[in-house]
Structure formats: structure tokens, C-alpha cells
Design brief:
The chain is an alpha+beta fold. It contains 8 helices and 15 strands.
Amino acid sequence: MLKLLTDDNAHGKRLDQWLAQQLALQSSRCCLQSLIREGQVIVNGKTILEPRFKLSKNLGVIVNMMTAAECEPAGENIPLDILYEDKDLIVLDKPAGLVVHPGNGNQAGTLVNALVHHCGEDLSSIGGAKRPGIVHRLDKDTTGIMVVAKNDSAHHNLSQQFADHGRSGVLLRTYVALVWGAPNHKRGKIDLPLIRSHRDRKRQTVARESCSNARQAITHYTLLKKFGDDKNRTTIASLLECRLETGRTHQIRTHMAYLGHPLIGDMNYGSAFKTKANRLSRPTRAVVSAFPRQALHAQRLTFRHPFTGKIMTFIRNPPDDMQNLIESFQEPIL
């Protein structure tokens, strides 16, 4: 624990800026921002959670440096599939199994570790030490396109575009998902608020109307293809395109499961549908049983470049394992 007293030089300065000057040899500004957001900095007896907090003279500042050594991810030489890069941003195709940023149980081997190795200090600091450059996220086992900010100005601009979700701008995020069964309509809008499950804090659930802390979640879907037995008019699975109007944790997975069409391979939200594989042909059943994750891929991302203003669109088809899964459903069902 470190105790400091603000001086004349601190008046009117941001807390993170002043601390970075005082502790230049002990910790980076990015790391100090993370400590502030985690409640590790106290000013005159009050815990401050905002790095922009303005200081004045003769304030007592206490900094808990116990976690400072851990808050800054080390660079790791993890391969990145980069689709585009300039001085402001990186667009990449995230593989399955890669966690986006360090957290409980995942302190290393993340996308952030790979980005730190690739970019050095050329990443936005807005997300704090553990999330440098991270504008949006994908689940560990969801594949697909992400954009990362390399400076704070780009991060602010991209964050505003993502917060708007294309309502007044060009931002567009579409996914492809392979689900059990098929929706009744070719196109639909799912407008159901989400909340963290009280039974399992790692899961989301559709909230009751009375839940004041629920978050609005809207997913638009289009039915691309049905798989099943045409003779018996049985649909065993379908391929959907999903467009996000909001970006909540596990949004597509939770919404589709609520409709009764969970993603194939999703053991968190669709484990009750595992027996449906028994209706598949033996080759398809083998592919489904071996598929280790939810069949979800962020296929398209459109946004406006934060500085040039150019509309940028990136499209990447699902990886081989998901392509093979989709193609396996061409087999006739039993």
C-alpha cells in the first residue's frame, strides 16, 4: 500500500495522470487506470472509481499496489489472423477457444496477450490494463470478426458506433448460427430483455417485466436454410443469419434457446436438446457429437473508419469445423 499527498502540480489534473507522473518507475498509466476502476485507489477516505477524477492540493491518496504487477498482461506470441491493420485499428478473425481478455481463470493466453505482443504499447488505454484496445467482445468459443482500437481517439469513435448499433450510422454486425429446429417465420425480431441468471452467474436469462435491472436485448434473424426430412416435413436443424441491434453477453445464444431453438453444440443453453442427435444419420451424428462448441460465427462487420470516414466491410465465412458441421446436415435424417 502506497500513501501520497497531492501537491500544487496536482491541482486540476486527472487522478490517473498525476499518479502516472508520481509512479512512473513503478507502474504504467494503463495499469493505474485499471487499479482505479477496481477500487484500489482512495482519495481523502473515499474510493474513487473514475480515472478522470480531478484533484486539488493537499489530498491524501492511498494506492493499493498489491495487484499492480498482475494487472498488465504480458505479450505472448499467439498467431493472429489479421484482415486489416493501420495506425488506428486492427480487424481480425478470432478463432475458437481464444478468450478475448484476461479474467478469472484466464490470466494468460488471451487475445489481449497476443495484441500486446503484436502492437507493443500501440493500443488504446480506455479499456484499462486488462482490456487495451478492446471495443467489443466475442465469447471464447464464438469465432469471427472483431475490430480493435490502437489509440484512444479511435476507441471513442468506434465505441460510439457500437453503442448506436447502426440506428443512425452504418454499423452492422451479423452472425451465422446453426440451431436445432427452425423458427416459424422466415424473418423475425426477438425483443426480450436479459439479466444474469441467479442460478448460474455465468449464464444470461430472459428477464421478467418486473426486473428493473434487466437490459434491453434485440436480435433480428433470417432463416437461410432448413435441414431435415422433406418427405415427412420434419426440420431437424436450420441455418440462421442473426443481426444484433444490441450487444449483450450471450445475446444470440440466450434468445434462440428461449425460442426453443438453441445453438447446436451449446451445452450451456441447449444441453436438453442433445438427444436430438439420435435422429440424425450416423455420419452426421458423429460430426455433431465431436463438435466442441456453440455453432456461432461473427461473419460480417461494417463500420465507418474513425478518421478517414470510409465505410469498411469485412466478411469471413465460418471456419472449417463449422463449415463441416453445416455440410454434414446435408445427409438425410433417419
